[in-house]
Structure formats: structure tokens, C-alpha cells
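User: Fold this; C-alpha cells only.

Assistant: Input:
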Amino acid sequence: MDLREVFATNLRRLRHAKGLSQDDLAYEAEVSRSYLSQLEKAAFYASLKIVEKVARALDVEPAELLRSPLRGGRSITKKG
């Protein structure tokens, strides 16, 4: 899973957890709903400015949007 997919997965998860529609979150983050939808589909890369705006609207730290999902209680990391 690349970082764009990680961001998309976390964005959807956090938005659902907060009970927000895409319209509501887009309004709070000051982005278009269409753009937010494309971010959730991992169609677009998010700039740091967008990560910051979305994190602020979701009331989470920006790192929470970029954190790899857990599998079996451990974070996914590549060793190399």
C-alpha cells in the first residue's frame, strides 16, 4: 500500500468515525467535495497543505492521516 492509499484509507476511516459526510468534511476543510472524493479514492496525491487542512477539520494530528494501518497489532513497515 503506497502512501496515497494509506492517506485515502485513513481519511475515509476518520471521516466515518466522526460521522461526517464528504460534504461536511469538505466544507470544514475548505476544499471541494469532488476533490475530497478523489482523495478518498486515492486518485490524487494530497499536498502537505491539504493534509493539514483535513487533519484540522477532523481534529487529529496530521500524522494520523499518514500512519500505516495495523495488521495483527503491528504496524506495516518495509525493511530494506
